[in-house]
Amino acid sequence: MNKRDTFYITTPIYYVNDVPHIGHAYTTVAADVLARYWRLRGRDVFFLTGLDEHGQKVQQAAAKAGIDPQAHCDRLAPQFTNLWQRLNISNDAFIRTTDKQHQAVVQRYLQQLYDKQLIYKADYTGWYCTYDERFWTEKDVADGLCPDCKRSIERLSEHNYFFKMGQYQERLIDHIRTHEDFIRPVSRRNEVLGFLQTQKLGDLSISRPKSRLSWGIELPFDKDYVTYVWFDALVNYVSALEYKSGLERFWPANAHLVGKDILTTHAVYWSTMLMALERPLPHSIFAHGWWTVDGEKMSKSRGNVVDPNAMIDQFGADAFRYFLLREVPFGQDGDFSEQALARRVNSDLANGIGNLLSRTLTMIERNCSGSIPTVPTDYLDSEAARAKYPLLVHVKESLRTLEDCLDESYESLAFNNLLLHITSRVSEVDTFIDKHEPWKLAKDPDKRDELEIVLYTAAECLRILGLYVYPVMPSTAKNLAEQLGISLDFNSPLLRQKITWGSLPGGTKIRKGNALFPRIAVAEAATNILTGHEAKLSKPQGAKPVSETPASPQPAPVTPSPAAAPSPAPATAAPAAAQPAQIGIDDFMKIQLKAAKVLSAERVPKSEKLLKLQVSLGSEQRQIVAGIGKKYEPETLIGKTIVIVANLKPAKLMGIESQGMVLAAGDSEVRGLATFIEDVEPGTKVK
Fold first, then answer.
1. Going by C-beta distance under 8 Å and a sequence separation of 6 or more, which residues neighbour residue 584?
2. How big is the CA angle at 466 (ends 461 and 469), to the nearest 5 degrees?
3. Which one of 123, 439, 494, 660 is most buried, by most CB atoms within 10 A?
4. Comparing C-alpha atoms, which of 286, 263, 104 is closest to residue 194?
5. 243: confidence class by pLDDT, cuts 50, 70, 90
6. Interval 464-483: pLDDT, tens
7. Cα→Cα distances 153→131, 139, 216, Å
8. What's the alpha-carbon Rg for the chain, to the nearest Å?
């Protein structure tokens, strides 16, 4: 089987004791979008998610509740399956580590490793974190706290079984070096390589004595022990294929999507386990960032854990899905606020594709008796026609180029950039309508043909855009098609072939419905989107708009953050002859300047100066916040190659992470950006 014909995507299996939050939704929605797109492109997709149901925390919680651990898991599992249904997650399988078939596969693999003498028994003394169910070495621990979760740990001495993980260290380093896409994004790849190249990889304890923990998969070669929860959990990626689909057909996985906090267990534990089992490694492990809330880390103690169910109730599943993948580049940290979500819905969706559909159908309803106009299929074939409708030619070509870049965007998991391209095409269609002014054409009988061509073009663009937005917003795409009066089977490979312009049948009766995305009013009324937080959104109707929180003081035009800049001097005049402090060449050489191409730009809400830029450095994409908004409109920067400081420590401006600094000329105000005369490849060093 050619791997280009199949696509295997996984999420982590989530710990059953956790309440589903925005992080769980983020990973699962991203995986779902990939699965839906590659199905449209004609690939045989297998999308796996599920639950990790073993371990000490589950055993303790069940004991506290006075019920059997299995009954405890059965009671909690629906909180995930129900949420995935509400979010329109199209997983092909939902694995639970308590599945009998999964347990049998784990035991078979353990026995294979034991028979190959890759598992041995030894005494061990170390610091143990019950919450993370993990041992730590002496050098890792400070003040008796777990380095990861900062909870109290205890010192344990016990006999355990160990997997000879350390002997695969050099082989794993070589694999990472020779497979650039194995760990993504690049920054995470560098982290794992740095860890492996500077520390000796020890062997992995893969058992727990039943005297301490009985809730787990029993070792096949020693009935007094159960399997370490991570060894059990990681095997799910292949066990599910063995008993649910077909291991040889889908393995190795195209992509494991994980949060950055569990990258090491996947990149190191799982990879060495696969090497020992003589299985190919996955093509890619992609570690995405974390979500903060209004600039603060999410935690139960802070009471700011975002509840996806409440957000679906307030905004709808599609709007939430869109926000998660549009707000920040996948792989970087993001900051959630209800205001940001409301602004994104209003600007991108209500004012964007929602408004385009509404105005197009309204004009068809008024001027064409509610039916899609019938136009000649060759209405753009002649030079005269192309000269008469240059914007139509541009819009058509723009949609074609979007189709060409889809595969690349999905391959690189550039969801943010992809959605930006789609919304820009929506704006182009709006511009096309505005330039041709169909409301004026309708008043002139001699302009009837032109009117029908304009309205047909707008409707045909909507049909095509509906196909493009389907992976991210499936309900919206179906609703859009229904309002256009067409029937599309989104379960079929609609994008296997190139999209044919003009496939929307003339004479089709439209079925105009409610707005795709009603505007959301910002008001003082409280909602329950954030547990324990008072929100500032009202229901779409009847709300009294209020001003938002005043903006924080703005930094200097190209200063990445107050923390990265010197403390402000007293408000006294500097001596006229003051000279800047001199630095040596060694200090200057520490600064890494690179060429960066601007992929997208938008204003930071509540700020006149700040723009949020997505830039390409060739091998990676970054987000930079720059104080150049008074000098430049965002759209004028797209496509420009600028100079940035690439090795500046990330910092936050108004809650938005900035991963570098733009160079610009000016004193109190920006006069111009540092750019290039010749074409320079993104990522090129500036000397």
1. none
2. 125
3. 660
4. 263
5. confident
6. 999 999 999 999 999 999 99
7. 9, 14, 21
8. 28
> How is residue 2 written in tokens?
């050619």
pLDDT, average across residues 94-104: 97
Q: How far apart are CA 55 and CA 134, in angstroms?
A: 11
- Rounded Cα distance between 57 and 69, Å, is 10
What pTM was computed for the model?
A: 0.78
Segment 415-441 mean pLDDT: 93
**pLDDT of 68:** 95
Q: Give strand pairing partners of 155.
A: 127
pLDDT band at 150 (very low <50, low <70, confident <90, very high): confident
Q: For residues 543 and 116, give the distance between their C-alpha atoms in angstroms, rounded to a whole number.
A: 68
For residue 322 the two structure tokens come to: 């869109």
3-state class (DSSP) for residue 225:
strand
Which residue is it, tokens 């390409």?
616
Length of the chain: 687
Report the distance separating Cα 49 and Cα 237, nearest Å.
Answer: 9
Looking at residue 429, its amino acid is V
Confirm if 8 and 43 have CB atoms less than 8 A apart: no
**pLDDT the model gives residue 558:** 33
Q: Give the torsion sign (CA, 632, 634, 635, 637).
A: positive
Residue 649: both structure tokens together: 């420590």
Per-residue confidence band for 522, with pLDDT thresholds at 50, 70 and 90:
low
Q: What is the average pLDDT score of the chain?
A: 86
Estimate to the nearest angstrom the gap between the alpha carbon of 364 and the chain centroid: 37
Token pair recorded at residue 138: 């002496």
Does residue 185 have a cis bond before it (omega within 30 degrees)?
A: yes
For residues 387 and 62, give the distance between their C-alpha atoms in angstroms, rounded to a whole number.
Answer: 73
**pLDDT value at 140 more than 50:** yes
pLDDT single digits (tens) 635-670: 778 878 999 998 887 887 877 878 889 998 876 678
Paired tokens of 494: 């609609």
CA 20 to chain centre: 17
Tokens coding 621: 């994409």
* Three-state DSSP class for residue 254: coil
Which of 435-449, 530-544, 581-595 ranks highest by mean pLDDT?
A: 435-449
Question: Distances in Å between the alpha carbon of 32 and those of 11, 257, 356, 473?
Answer: 9, 11, 26, 11
Q: Answer yes or no: are the C-beta atoms of 406 and 468 closer than 8 Å.
A: yes
Total Cβ atoms within 10 A of residue 126: 18
Q: How far apart are the first and last CA of the chain?
A: 49
Q: Residue 657 — φ and ψ, nearest 5°?
A: -70, 135
Per the model's pLDDT, the better-predicted residue between 347 and 551 turns out to be 347
